[in-house]
User: Fold Histone-lysine N-methyltransferase SUVR4 from Hibiscus sabdariffa.
Amino acid sequence: MSKNERVRKAFDATRALKLPDEEVKLVLKHLLKLFDNNWEPIEAEDYRALIDAYFELKEDKGKNGCEDAVVEHGESGKLPKRLRLPDPEDQVSFRKGSTSQVSSPKEKKKRIVSLQQDVTFLNKKDSSSSGYSNSCKKPQQQHVTCEKKNSFQIIPDITKGTENVEISLVDVTGKKELPKFTYMRDNIIYQHAYVHISLARLADEDCCSGCSGDCLSVPIPCACAQETGGEFAYTSEGQLREEFLKACMSMKLEPQEHHFVYCLDCPLERSKRKCKGHMVRKFIKECWRKCGCNMQCGNRVVQRGITCKLQVFWTREGKGWGVKTLRDLPKGTFVCEYVGEILTNTELFVRNSKGSGDERHTYPVTLDADWGSEKILKDEEALCLDATFCGNVARFINHRCFDASLIDIPVEVETPDRHYYHLALFTTRDVKASEELTWDYGIDFDDHEHPIKAFKCSCGSKFCRDKKRSAVQVGL
Assistant:
């Protein structure tokens, strides 16, 4: 649908309520900026967001005298405070154990935009009856009754300005408590995890100190491409090469066809049973500080951070919060890294035993992609990522069995040992704007002895591995 057609339909909806086009135009323009030109939340529920925003404006304008309640035109600064676009320096902070709070020192402006009223419209057949139920009378308009309901909640940027792009959060139901967590752009050690980052540990053969500019522009791949068979994992457009992505997806979809290694003393199975095996996965090795290339090198995709326009939203399928893309994403596009606290498996066990109850929004990730290279791992070397209390947008990405739109790939950046690595999420296919992003967590729903307990799957995939729940869904 073209932009002009969308605008026409929006005006048709507001004209049915006798709302002036010029006044609606200002509010519509503001909402498009707020939603980054994404029409879906505006069009949802018969343009509820647009109509709510209009009456919020009318309410604020009418506070000092209903007879003079006239909408001003011009910049967003003339909008009521709750509807203004936030200043770039304003930040939102999620803190553990508390509701979301504004972190601006003087709280001059709020970055949480809450449309406080849900409006119920009662069109009267008697055209002589006019005005608003809040006593603000305006001639030649149908009667409108405003009933106070749940808020329409918007957070323009949950990243607190730490990412390259803003990531918004939208709850069109207005019924859900905003998630409690601290947004972090990078992984951080919780307590005892051993992550040794040092230039001295990077041997000359592990970097490309002789390179300059963009490593992908030279005819012969540099030393950093050795990990991926002498060819870089990325194309010049910044996406994964088709062959590399295909190989990674095969490991995810057909694990039985690939090589597994077994720990003599598995960190996950200590004092219980033998190691069930860990797949030897493909890694991407990116250039880093000791390399001679610059930060725009084509082999520095993950470390440059998020560039996709994403939005956190409340799903309608019982999955809680989810993440959608606001732009079309080609196959092989880097979306985001899974960021969280770096814990040892013992620390994770202790944390789980204390119980986070219903507060858990995430599923911990075990960094076991190279555990088999050593016979015995010390506890501080057997690491995992937990984004329950600290993390980035990836903590909201929902699981989907088998046919998810994202795949996780280990990425080596600043340390040559693989006790610690980055877990990057790439698209497995072309993804359309407004489509929810999903990722297969790799959960074995039948393994009831695993230290990380599986949840009840609601992915909706016909390939769902949660057999009991799938049987209920199909009525078996």
